[in-house]
From TrEMBL:
Coiled coil: none annotated. Its EC number is 6.1.1.12. GO terms for cellular component: aminoacyl-tRNA synthetase multienzyme complex; cytosol. Pfam families: tRNA-synt_2. Keywords: Aminoacyl-tRNA synthetase, ATP-binding, Cytoplasm, Ligase, Nucleotide-binding, Protein biosynthesis. It comes from Panicum hallii var. hallii. Its main location: cytoplasm. SUPFAM superfamilies: Class II aaRS and biotin synthetases. This is aspartate--tRNA ligase.
Length: 289
């Protein structure tokens, strides 16, 4: 039985019957590290090829730990996309998909709590929906048509129709002339539109609360996913939830004065500040810096 199992290629699908027990040492190559299966019977459901396009160990490696001299083969983007089903088995890729869903879900949840209405807009239009972006053109039953670049017009129509606050999560298409690995011609847009009743600060407050809610949710509910992504794609940790609860919200002129004070007047170490900070209540530059 041991020889049979050893002859199976990596990524083969097997059915195992055995007893769950505590291992002598933690199992390092599994998410459940404190239990193991002492199998009595093993059956191969689907045998994988002995020569896979790449190993998951190489695909999971941090970018700086790949390539010559590292002992790991570099798995390029084209190879990953050509073998997408295999590449999706890496913990980091699965974590990215799960976090994308959580962001989308929290986006909807927060806006619904602020009296927004979810809408569905057309993705096949008679003309371009946004002048600043290139458009995919096609023929539909002999008539010219375009794929939607943005739901902007339809959102504004909904506001004019009396909805007050609307949002949409849906696919968008932009035929921009770029082939970089960070560029997407098709992506999922998180769009919102709001009727301003008194002041544009109403929009700022919604956007501020939205981002704080999303980041707090990721910090609290996606710790394992963030850890998996950080192993392969290191990043600065998200702000602490106590910091996020007190986001920075100040007037535009206060921000301008802070920038001028910081980059123009601060090195001079002079008390002769040209700007009159008393014009805006609470605009204590030194306190902010």
């Amino acid at each position: 039985m041991v020889c049979f199992a050893a002859a199976l290629g990596a990524e083969s699908v097997v059915e195992v019957e055995g007893v769950v027990a505590a291992p002598r040492d933690p199992v390092l190559r599994a998410t459940a590290r404190h239990v193991e299966v002492r199998f009595r019977r093993i059956h191969c459901v689907a045998r994988a090829s002995r020569s896979l396009p790449f190993s998951l160990d190489d695909a999971e490696a941090e970018a700086e730990l790949e390539g010559p001299g590292t002992g790991r083969a570099r798995v390029g983007q084209d190879t990953r996309f050509n073998q997408r089903a295999l590449d999706l088995r890496t913990p980091a890729n699965q974590a990215i998909f799960r976090i994308q869903f959580q962001v989308e879900n929290k986006f909807r949840e927060f806006l619904l709590s602020k009296s927004f209405v979810g809408i569905r807009t057309l993705k096949l239009n008679a003309g371009a929906s946004e002048g600043g972006a290139a458009v995919f053109k096609l023929q539909y039953n002999g008539q010219p048509a375009c794929l939607a670049q943005s739901p902007q017009l339809h959102k504004q129509m909904a506001i004019s129709g009396g909805f007050g606050r609307v949002f949409e999560v849906g696919p968008l298409f932009r035929a921009e002339n770029s082939k970089t690995h960070k560029h997407l011609c098709e992506f999922t847009g998180l769009d919102a539109e709001i009727e301003i009743k008194e002041h544009y600060f109403e929009v700022c407050d919604v956007i501020d609360g939205l981002f704080v809610a999303i980041f707090k949710h990721l910090n609290e509910s996606c710790k394992r996913e963030l850890e998996e992504i950080n192993k392969q794609f290191p990043f600065e940790p998200l702000k602490d939830k106590h910091v996020l609860a007190c986001s920075c919200n100040f007037l535009f002129m206060v921000g301008i004065r802070q920038l001028v004070f910081r980059f123009c007047l601060w090195p001079m170490r002079t008390a002769q500040v040209v700007l009159n900070t008393a014009a805006v209540p609470g605009a204590d530059l030194e306190a902010h810096l």
